[in-house]
Amino acid sequence: MNIAVRYLSKTGNTEKVARAIAEALGVEAVPLTGSSAIEEETGVLFLGVAVYAFGIDAAVTAFIQKLDKAKVKNVAVFSTSAIVKSMRAPVKKLLSEKGIPLLDKEFHCWGKFKFMRKGHPNASDLERAKGFAKDIMEMSRNV
Ligand SMILES: Cc1cc2nc3c(=O)[nH]c(=O)nc-3n(C[C@H](O)[C@H](O)[C@H](O)COP(=O)(O)O)c2cc1C
């Protein structure tokens, strides 16, 4: 089963989590750019989003809108933020418009922003992220 990791990170926090997840899975963490489209059949797409102005960045929305359900079988979301504790609902809404399932289990940790959440994501956050990636893979094997 092909596994992919894609993320958007403006200040580096979500990138750290993406890299930890990718390391646990033995794949590459790829930032969302013009060439980050999912071209091959992918069992689980790990999608990393941060919260900006209480929402999802337009680049993430555009990326999801271009996904093909024939290629992407499941998405697992991970996120960092300073206040909001989950990005599952807005991501699920966008994915449902594409007919792509979002796995129940998600990962979230704090990400430093100005004077808030200093030091995050920290080593313990990144260990938790690796555990999340392994749990998702274990669950997906039993589907
Ligand atoms: C322009 C901007 C707007 C933000 N707005 C919010 C917000 O509305 N709610 C929140 O919880 N965090 C907010 N944050 C904090 C980020 O979600 C947090 O720092 C996150 O870890 C940034 O991820 P990144 O480093 O991968 O870009 C904002 C950060 C920035 C830079």
Please give a structural write-up.
By secondary structure, this protein is an alpha/beta fold. It has one domain: Flavodoxin domain (Rossmann fold, 3-Layer(aba) Sandwich), CATH 3.40.50. It is built from 4 helices and 5 strands; from the N terminus they run βαββαβαβα. A 5-stranded parallel β-sheet has the order 2-1-3-4-5, with helices on one face. β3, α2 (58-65) and β4 form a beta-alpha-beta unit. α1 packs across α4. The chain is globular and about 45 Å long. 40% of the residues are buried. The mean pLDDT is 96. Flavin mononucleotide binds at residues 9-15, 50-54, 80-84, 111-113.
What strand order characterises the main sheet?
2-1-3-4-5
Tally of strands: 5
- Level-2 CATH architecture: 3-Layer(aba) Sandwich
Largest sheet: 5 strands, parallel
Number of helices in the DSSP assignment: 4
Spell out the helices and strands N to C: EHEEHEHEH
Structurally, how many domains make up the residues? 1
Judged by helices, strands and strand pairing, the structural class is: alpha/beta
What hetero molecules are in the model?
Answer: flavin mononucleotide
Helix content: 25-40%
CATH class: Alpha Beta
* Rg calc: 14 Å
Q: By CATH's scheme, which homologous superfamily applies?
A: Flavodoxin domain
The rough form would be described as: globular
CATH fold annotation = Rossmann fold
Low-pLDDT sequence parts: none
User: What is the CA-CA span between the terminal residues?
Assistant: 12 Å
Query: What is the average per-residue confidence, as pLDDT, rounded to a whole number?
Result: 96
- Measured by DSSP, the beta-strand proportion falls in 15-25%
